[in-house]
Amino acid sequence: MSGYELTKTEKQRRKEVYEQTRNMILSRLDIEEQDETSVMTGYRGYYLQISFSELHPLMVFCLAKNLEHTGGTRQLNFINDLNLKSILGSHSINKEIGCYSYRATHWLDKELEPSRFYEILDRCVDEADKGYRRLAV
């Protein structure tokens, strides 16, 4: 067995953590759309997509917001600076659609309580707000 092969018990445990987390999120947020891997909704002024990887297990937050002016050298320098200083996730600009986004990945090593979920989510939004405010000026 290689270091990447998981026991049946571990695969089942990870699946249960994923399912518990997804179900908890579905019961707490007003989900607008969903598919096999993601749920989407609005949250604190952002488009929010939460994606899951059952195998790893991971939960990925992507927060996006319209940004009128994108792609200037000043903004690109700000993005680089933000990413050098960001511990939680990464900031980016999509010039084609005029969008700012922030992305953060969190391990799901155990069942996630609603209070911890909101703590993680709100910290992600706070970090996204810092980036957005810096770029939107």
Task: Explain the overall architecture.
The radius of gyration is 17 Å and the shape is elongated. The chain has 137 residues and is of the alpha+beta class. It has one domain (8-136): Yope Regulator, Chain: A (2-Layer Sandwich), CATH 3.30.1460.10. It has 3 helices and 6 strands. Helix content is 42%, strand content 29%. A hairpin with a 4-residue loop joins strand 3 and strand 4.
Walk me through the topology:
Elements: H1 8-28, E1 33-34, E2 38-43, E3 46-53, E4 58-66, H2 73-85, E5 89-94, E6 99-107, H3 114-136
Antiparallel strand pairs: 1-2, 2-3, 3-4, 4-6, 5-6
The figure for the number of domains is: 1
Distance between the termini: 54 Å
The helicity comes to 40-55%
Q: What is the CATH architecture annotation? A: 2-Layer Sandwich
Write down the secondary-structure element order: HEEEEHEEH
Rg from alpha-carbon coordinates: 17 Å
List the strand order in the largest sheet.
1-2-3-4-6-5
User: pLDDT under 50 segments (min length 5)?
Assistant: none
Mean pLDDT reading: 88
**Main sheet attributes: strand count, strand direction, barrel closure:** 6 strands, antiparallel
How many β-strand stretches? 6
| CATH topology annotation | Yope Regulator, Chain: A
The CATH class assignment is: Alpha Beta
Oligomeric state of the chains in view: single chain
**Helix vs. strand class:** alpha+beta
| Number of separate helices | 3
